[in-house]
Design a protein that fits this description.
This protein is mainly beta. The chain has a single domain, classed as Neuraminidase (6 Propeller), CATH 2.120.10. It has four helices and 36 strands. It has helices spanning 19-23, 98-106, 122-126, 262-265, and strands at residues 36-37, 39-43, 51-55, 58-60, 62-63, 66-67, 75-84, 87-94, 139-143, 146-150, 157-159, 166-169, 187-189, 197-204, 208-217, 226-235, 244-245, 249-254, 257-259, 275-277, 284-289, 301-304, 309-319, 322-330, 354-361, 366-373, 377-381, 393-399, 408-415, 420-425, 430-432, 436-439, 450-458, 463-470, 476-481, 492-496. A hairpin with an 8-residue loop joins strand 28 and strand 29 (408-415). The protein binds cobalt (II) ion. Cobalt (II) ion is lined by residues 185, 241-242, 311-312, 491.
């Protein structure tokens, strides 16, 4: 592994991360900037990169001296890094949700968070308040003229893609009912059915769960219009954060999870804290035929899945009868107790994410699962032109060590053909987030030709750095100092000019 750009600041004895350095990223974003130029510290910004890197994540973690119970309860803050002619400028804004505005005015938490943040006044003040605060903090994508801040349990917020001003909640031209769930993990079909599409879903959970699968046009005159729409119901509670697509299928993994809402109703726990793994439950793949594919209109298929828990998938593709899906598996569901402090999380006690491939035969109702890499990883992606078809390369955030759990400190390129990997590391003083792959415009066929952009928490100066890597050999192209401090975040996307 290459020597980290922050290594020279660490004491020679320090080889592993310190909990204090890692948790120093949990802070409020204090400023909103408009087209602020960001300082280049090392290297140069490739002039061919032209477009915007949008990033969402929790930006407000404390109000009036009270901290959120879990960072996922922090209000969504969007950062837009605009690349032009070898320069980058930054605009950042909180999503002006109804709840953010009310809390901003009163300077205290007025709503319960899904991950356990409570209002002042103890259990009694929280009991039977089942309002969910839409914090719009999970992902950000552009659809037509709208920038959408996504949060899976409710509808998206629409923002102006240039100024990041909030337009308000969006029903996507009448597609969504008021407050309807809309996933934070759309997939972009690069053109398996001629035009490019955004494929996404919403889940209505209960003893029986219903998945609404929607496809939207992403180009031309019809941009933003609904192209297809179907609903399918499945037995059992379904916690579905992400999914994968192939030309003919939408692939979901229904984890063996139960939901007991009682502690939530009684004001003791947040809704997500009421999720628990069912040790004897059987996880299932839910395979829904896409309306533009060759199985359009047929019933979905359910296939037994391996034990474990999955938040995120990497990619999926079809090969004859087989559907292949690559996912990040955990041994168990990482629950958040009411007494836990997120800053003191003991990484050694939590299961690590492992990249696995499942070959599913929907006709024989069988699967075959193999491990691609044991190194703890998260936030994996392929070249977006390869979404839904077999990709050789992927890029992901990983722990520094090859074994065991740890905070994400390195970015890895994985070659599934030769089982080879190259990493770039920010350890021991730096902490990475989701890498976003920007394909080179000049080479659409060369799968690994392009760049990666990553935000890194630099614990030396308690600030955020923007790193640009060459996606082929993982060398550093540029390091920039971002003028705001952004906590460990969630998902982002790249939009070409
Ligand atoms: Co996610």
């Amino acid at each position: 592994m290459a020597v980290s750009y922050l290594k020279r600041y660490a004491s020679p004895k320090q080889t592993v991360f310190s909990q204090e350095d890692w948790s120093s990223a949990y802070c409020n974003v204090e400023k909103e900037l408009e087209h602020a130029e960001i300082k280049l510290v090392r290297g140069s910004i490739p002039k061919q990169i032209s477009g915007t890197f949008y990033r969402n994540g929790p930006g407000r973690l404390e109000r009036g001296g009270q901290w959120v119970h879990h960072p996922f309860d922090g209000d969504g803050m969007i950062a837009a890094f605009k690349f032009k002619n070898g320069k980058i400028n930054l605009t950042n804004r909180f999503v002006r949700t109804k709840e953010w505005k009310e809390e901003e005015e009163s300077q205290k938490f007025l709503y319960r968070g899904v991950f356990g943040t409570q209002k002042e006044g103890g259990v009694l003040a929280n009991a039977f308040d089942v309002r969910l605060k839409n914090i719009a903090n999970t992902h950000v994508i552009k659809l037509g003229n709208d920038l959408l801040a996504l949060w899976e349990a409710s509808s998206p917020y629409s923002l102006n893609p240039n100024t990041l001003e909030t337009n308000g909640l969006s029903d996507l031209k009448g597609v969504l009912k008021k407050g309807e769930a809309f996933s934070a993990h759309p997939r972009f079909d690069p053109g398996h059915h001629k035009e490019q599409r955004m494929v996404t879903f919403g889940v209505k959970t209960g003893p029986q769960s219903t998945i609404r699968l929607m496809e939207f046009s992403t180009e031309g005159e019809k941009v933003g219009s609904l192209l297809s729409d179907r609903k399918d119901s499945f037995n059992g509670f379904a916690f579905l954060h992400d999914f994968a697509i192939t030309p003919n299928w939408a692939i979901f993994l229904q984890n063996a999870i139960s939901f007991n809402p009682l502690p939530f109703l009684l004001g003791q726990k947040g809704a997500a804290q009421c999720l628990a793994s069912k040790p004897n439950g059987t996880p299932k793949f839910l395979l829904i035929p896409r309306d533009c594919g060759k199985f359009a209109g047929t019933a979905p298929k359910t296939v037994k899945a391996p034990k474990g828990f999955v938040f995120h998938h990497l990619n999926a593709w079809e090969e004859n009868e087989t559907i292949n899906v690559e996912s990040i598996f955990y041994d168990d569901f990482p629950s958040i107790g009411p007494e836990d402090d997120f800053r003191n999380v003991d990484f050694d006690l939590l299961p690590e994410g492992v990249l696995k491939r499942c070959e599913i035969n929907p006709n024989k109702n069988t699967f075959n699962c193999s491990t691609l890499s044991n190194q703890c990883c998260e936030f994996a992606m392929v070249n977006p032109h390869f979404e839904g078809r077999k990709a050789r390369f992927s890029w992901m955030a990983t722990a520094e060590n090859k074994k065991g759990n740890g905070p994400l400190q390195a970015i890895k390129k994985f070659d599934s053909l030769n089982n080879e990997e190259i990493s770039w590391s920010a350890a021991p003083k730096g902490f990475v987030s989701e890498p976003i792959f920007i394909p080179s415009q000049y080479s659409k066929t060369e799968e690994d030709n392009g760049w990666l952009v990553v935000l890194v928490w630099n614990s030396i100066r308690c600030g955020t750095d923007l790193i640009i890597l060459d996606s082929k050999d993982m060398t550093e192209k540029a390091i920039l100092e971002v003028p705001i401090s952004i906590p460990h975040g969630l998902h982002g996307s790249w939009v070409n000019d």
